[in-house]
Amino acid sequence: MLFQVEMTVNLPVDMPERAAADIKAKEKAYAQEIQNAGEWRHIWRVAGTYSNLSIFDVKDIDRLHEILSGLPLFPYMAIAVKPLVRHPSSVRADDS
Amino acid sequence: MLFQVEMTVNLPVDMPERAAADIKAKEKAYAQEIQNAGEWRHIWRVAGTYSNLSIFDVKDIDRLHEILSGLPLFPYMAIAVKPLVRHPSSVRADDS
Amino acid sequence: MLFQVEMTVNLPVDMPERAAADIKAKEKAYAQEIQNAGEWRHIWRVAGTYSNLSIFDVKDIDRLHEILSGLPLFPYMAIAVKPLVRHPSSVRADDS
Amino acid sequence: MLFQVEMTVNLPVDMPERAAADIKAKEKAYAQEIQNAGEWRHIWRVAGTYSNLSIFDVKDIDRLHEILSGLPLFPYMAIAVKPLVRHPSSVRADDS
Amino acid sequence: MLFQVEMTVNLPVDMPERAAADIKAKEKAYAQEIQNAGEWRHIWRVAGTYSNLSIFDVKDIDRLHEILSGLPLFPYMAIAVKPLVRHPSSVRADDS
Amino acid sequence: MLFQVEMTVNLPVDMPERAAADIKAKEKAYAQEIQNAGEWRHIWRVAGTYSNLSIFDVKDIDRLHEILSGLPLFPYMAIAVKPLVRHPSSVRADDS
Amino acid sequence: MLFQVEMTVNLPVDMPERAAADIKAKEKAYAQEIQNAGEWRHIWRVAGTYSNLSIFDVKDIDRLHEILSGLPLFPYMAIAVKPLVRHPSSVRADDS
Amino acid sequence: MLFQVEMTVNLPVDMPERAAADIKAKEKAYAQEIQNAGEWRHIWRVAGTYSNLSIFDVKDIDRLHEILSGLPLFPYMAIAVKPLVRHPSSVRADDS
Amino acid sequence: MLFQVEMTVNLPVDMPERAAADIKAKEKAYAQEIQNAGEWRHIWRVAGTYSNLSIFDVKDIDRLHEILSGLPLFPYMAIAVKPLVRHPSSVRADDS
Amino acid sequence: MLFQVEMTVNLPVDMPERAAADIKAKEKAYAQEIQNAGEWRHIWRVAGTYSNLSIFDVKDIDRLHEILSGLPLFPYMAIAVKPLVRHPSSVRADDS
Question: What is the sign, positive or negative, of the torsion defined by CA atoms of H39, H45, H49, H55?
């Protein structure tokens, strides 16, 4: 089941560098683990911003929320979720 | 080079069925040709809407505009374009 | 799996009464069939508007899109979809 | 009488963990008490966000405001209220 | 029970004058009947617009929706509804 | 002369309780004095929010601004002002 | 009493030229009459648009509404009204 | 050359009174000097807000920016600029 | 004097092809004449849309409005104008 | 390849002057270096604001993001990116 999720990060500008680096490192490790598990299929950076566009392939909405609310940067994020289905014009059988 | 494009179609509700079917068929053929050429990498339907979310992988912006403005449904579309780059947390080397 | 869907209907004001009555009757029959099947769990009217707020309990997003895009009034609707999960404060085990 | 209420919580990111945990615990107890009283009929989490969608069944608007303004997290909330009525297509007699 | 309702009328500019005059006359008669019944407590024109701001005092939401959806101009209206309660600073016991 | 004014209060969440209580008490006394003078004709609370909807009947705009900018909570408010006139459908001679 | 009014005109693109020219001529005559009466103190065109920014000096809101709703182009206009008062930094005694 | 400029001031609510008074005094002196020079032709307060609506008559855009960016309150302002031209319906030859 | 202007064209979808081709040809000739005169310094197409971003270098606002309101497609356009000045970081002496 | 980028800077009002001056100096040096390299083709100030409108000519999106995310003021910026292509009405062969 596919979802597009756009995440915009707003870190406080006065956050100590050490703390910012730590939380970003945790975020990266967390994201890569889930990508390697196949649930976080794509993650792109929106050019010129501190936002990412991601495609999630998860078994259900609970799992999506579990992943997103577990992001270390979640408290600093504005998140928009769009549920996707295969497009009738897609040449891919499943286009997951 | 990757772009995310969201296309929302607003066909006039009083468009004759025949004309609507024709233009949709042309749109599908056009979209599948470009997908098979590898430039239109993903196309998903946003659930509950007449919008699609697509990922284009094109050589430059001119080509992107050529594809989009050549869509049979282009005159009936609202289009938003976001340029994408590889995300530092992506586990894919290029994340095409 | 739960989704909240808000549907706002904009029928052309010059639509012949007969056609409007027909399409509304089809919409009602369609909606009641799906409610009776248990997938369209709640449908309320937003007071003072021609919008409804609905809660769908479907097996996946494909089914949600199938239901929504199959609505007779779909071409006349603006639709917003929000995926829901059980709230940690809910006293209902599943709150479907 | 039914109302849909969407509540988005914005806790200050620098709120001490102890204080945040306390206020969330109070919020949960408060919400469960009212759910058990039958006035807070449904509460769902909007996936990927710190928002909830709730359906209240209260005797009047005063009671709704009393409940909402009494929420421990009220000072940190953006709240949108939509009054609901039974939909003519609902298969439920009252669709409470 | 009090509601503030803002109604903005968008009559098609090509509506025949006769039809426009008729529907406005019906609207006025309808509105005055409900005002005289005490349910439509205030109606003001927002200066410079074709909108009105009204205060309704009705027994419940069903009645509010019944009144609003029964307005002859309802199909041409954009309507916003805000449920009101007595303000703690009001010097009026009930502020009807 | 009538104006509708919507006032939304955003007190800093870290404002000391004592200071918050003082300023609210001053606000209440100020508002009741002007209500008793007949200029602040109605004040309602928008259910579920920290906003009020008020109807002012003042001799001119200067007086309106004097009242609003003199509110103790003015620095913490977002204010929207709509000038009103008697509606042609009003059954009240003046509905001031 | 001063009001700033911004008026944006949206004439139907298929309005016959003759009808458009007539209504614009009536609008101009109407506007100049009120300017000469001193109530319509300023009217400027917002560069690049079909909008005007005007300053009205009228005895009360009723008169403002009378003028605006009497504009021949009123049915084709989106209008925003802002009540103004003398600014404390103004060097003009009254800044009419 | 005329510009309409709307300036909304957002002073931090925790700014010491002394500092606020000083910067406002500087702002007033600055504004009055430019008014007396004839470049800042009108300044009005938008009733109920901490915004002003101003009409500038300057030789070019550079001068406009020089004035606005030199305002003592500039760092605390949201500013919107609209270039104006004489309206064809204006009875004033130049309506400066 | 520089202005950035964003023009979005909304041609009626049912405009006869001949009429659409004619008006576009006129628009192109008009735009190229003004470019060659040096006043319309840049015109780009916003990829994926029927909008252009242009930089005008004109003697004053009147001339800007004259050019824009003279565009054959003006009645079908939504236009946004931003006055520009040289940026302090520009390496061009005059990049006006 | 051309992009229009609009950057709005929101420096904290309580940033020490020394720190603000330093970061602005770094920003200026950074911007001028890239302008001299030919990638940052135009930079203008939007009159009355702390925003700039820039035209970038870069080899691809990666380079655009590299430049923008490397701006010393990047953490304090809201950025909007629009990909541009040559306009069919442009008199410049390449006004890419």
Answer: negative
Question: What is the pLDDT at residue E7?
Answer: 98
Residue I27: what are its φ and ψ, rounded to 5°? Answer: -60, -45
Judged by CB atoms within 8 Å, which residues 50-79 of H form the interface with J?
A: 61, 64-65, 68-69, 75-76, 79
Question: Is the residue at E90 inside a domain?
Answer: no
Amino acid at I44: W
In total, how many domains does chain F have? 1
Residue ranges of alpha helices (H) inside chain D are 17-36, 61-69
Q: Which two structure tokens, joined as six digits, stand for F82?
A: 């709509």
- Which pairing describes strands A77-86 and A2-9: parallel, antiparallel, or unpaired? antiparallel
- J60 to chain A, closest Cα gap in Å: 11
What is the predicted pLDDT for the residue at H22?
Answer: 98
Give yes or no for a contact between C44 and D4, defined as CB atoms under 8 angstroms apart.
Answer: yes
CA atoms within 13 A on the CB side of H21: 3
Please report whether residue H90 resides in a domain: no
> Are G43 and H4 a contacting pair at CB < 8 A?
no
Residues of chain D with pLDDT under 50: none
| Residue D7, domain CATH | 3.30.70.1060
Summarised one tens digit per residue, pLDDT across range A20-57 is 999 999 999 999 999 999 999 999 999 999 999 999 99
Q: In whole numbers, what is the pLDDT of chain D averaged over residues?
A: 95
Within 8 A of D14 by CB-CB distance, chain A residues are: 12
Q: How many CB atoms lie within 10 A of CB F72?
A: 16
Compute the distance between CA of residue D46 and CA of residue G17 in angstroms, rounded to an integer.
Answer: 52
User: Which chain C residue shows the shortest CA-CA distance from D42?
Assistant: C95
Q: Give the residue from H30, H57, H87 with the most G CB atoms within 10 Å of its CB, the best one to mutate.
A: H87
Does H36 fall in a domain?
Answer: yes
d(CA B32, CA F67): 65
How many beta-carbon pairs under 8 angstroms link A with J?
A: 22
Instruction: Please name the member of J43, J48, J89 whose beta carbon is closest to the beta carbon of I89.
Output: J43
* Torsion D23-D26-D27-D28 (CA) sign: positive
D15-42 b/e with 16+ CB inside 10 Å = b?
A: eeeeeeeebbeebeebbeebbeeebbbb
Strand A40-46 and strand A51-57: the pairing is antiparallel
Q: What is the mean pLDDT of residues G56-82?
A: 97
G35/chain H closest Cα distance in angstroms = 7
J37: pLDDT confidence band, cut at 50, 70 and 90? very high
Task: Report pLDDT digits (tens) over E33-53.
Answer: 999 999 999 999 999 999 999
Does the pLDDT at position J7 exceed 60? yes
Nearest CA in chain A to J68: A48
What domain range is A39 assigned to?
2-50+60-83
Burial of I14 (0-12, 13-18, 19+ CB in 10 A): exposed
- Give yes or no for J45 touching H (CB within 8 A): yes
pLDDT above 90 covers a percentage of chain C that reads 93
Arithmetic mean of pLDDT over chain C: 95
State how far the alpha carbon of B90 is from the alpha carbons of A48, B1, B96, D72, I54, in Å: 17, 16, 11, 40, 37
Task: Kindly report the backbone phi and psi dihedral angles of residue E3, in degrees, each rounded to the nearest multiple of 5, phi listed first.
Answer: -130, 140
Query: Does H78 reside within a domain?
Result: yes
Residues of I in contact with H2 (CB under 8 A): 61
- Evaluate whether chains J and H are touching (3 or more beta carbon pairs less than 8 Å apart): yes
- Tell me if C3 sits within 8 A of C58, measured CB to CB: yes
pLDDT of amino acid H95: 65
Length of chain J: 96
Q: What is the pLDDT of residue H94?
A: 73
Residues in C closer than 8 angstroms to A2, CB to CB, are 61
F26-72 pLDDT, tens digit per residue, is: 999 999 999 999 999 999 999 999 999 999 999 999 999 999 999 99
Q: Is the pLDDT of residue G96 over 80?
A: no
